[in-house]
Amino acid sequence: MTATWMVLLYGDEEFWRSAPQEVQDRIMEEHSAYAAACAERGYKIVGGEELAFSSSAITARRVGGRSVTVTDGPFSETAEYLGGYYVVETDDPRGLAQLTGELLLTDGGGAELRPVVQHP
Description:
The chain is α+β, with helices and mostly antiparallel strands and 120 residues long. The protein has 3 helices and 6 strands. A hairpin with a 3-residue loop joins strand 3 and strand 4.
């Protein structure tokens, strides 16, 4: 059964920030190859984008049941930050995870795949 999966890509922002242009270009080529491999395997990418650095994030938290606190910056301090995402339709999530892992090996990052909950 085909389901929609969110593929969250995590990596080291400092690596990306300091990588020479030729390294960034190679990584972007790998993303193009990933998209082609998805299509070859019948995985349909229906969305996805690179995200700005986490320093541009705004975090909202509910405090005390009603009060909302809005702060600048990411939700938590971590070595890996969410750098981008794909939204993929597939009936083979394990195959998609394997393919995604192959993409990330050169980037030193990680990925989390979660099914998207469909609401009427």
